[in-house]
Each structure stands twice: as structure tokens, then as C-alpha cells.
Amino acid sequence: MPYVDCPYCGTGKATAKDGFTTHTKCGYRATGPEAAARYITRHSLKDKNPTGASECPSCQEDALVVDNEGFYCFSCGENWPSNGLVVCDHCGNYYMNKDLTYCPSCEKLLTK
Description:
With 112 residues, this protein is α+β, with helices and mostly antiparallel strands. The protein has helices at 32-42, 104-110; strands at residues 4-5, 13-17, 20-23, 28-31, 54-55, 62-67, 70-73, 79-81, 86-87, 94-95. Helix content is 16%, strand content 30%. 32% of the residues are buried. The model has no long low-confidence stretch (mean pLDDT 90).
């Protein structure tokens, strides 16, 4: 899902890049974390995102949202299918390497 519904107007497709989400049709522009928070509220996704947006494993911004289709970062535009990321058992952040028990940061910290 390289595009998502605009967090502001809900129509058309918004894009995320370089820390911002923009929608040329309605003129919306916000930082990734702001757009993620608005998207979660607008689409009633608090059950899938109980603490708000999560840290993106690609750009480390708190702009990663989980919805019915998967994961989307409102800061860098990276996206993953619903089975594309796993949750770290230690810190709760998402990460890509399913062979690890913890995210790379926690893996380094806990295996010293």
C-alpha cells in the first residue's frame, strides 16, 4: 500500500516521503507523526494502535500505523503486508527480521 487515504479529507491518495505526508488534491501536508495520529483517529484504528503510531523500522519515526491491510509509515512511505513485521518481546517496537526474538536494538542490549 504505497498510498493511503488522505488523513485529512479521507479521499484520494496521500503519499509519505522525507518525513511528511502530503495530498495534492486537498493541499494537506503534515509531519509523519501528525499524519499518523490523524489517520488512526479518522479510521478508528485505536484497537490496532493502542499506544498511537509506532516506531518505523526503516526511518525510526513514530509514524508507523497498523490497519487491516498491513503497516504503513507516514514519514518515509515504507509499507509491509500484515505478516511483514513482528513485535519485539522486550520493547514492543516492530522489526523485520523474524529470525530474531527481539528487535535489533534490544538484541544488542540483551545479548551483551
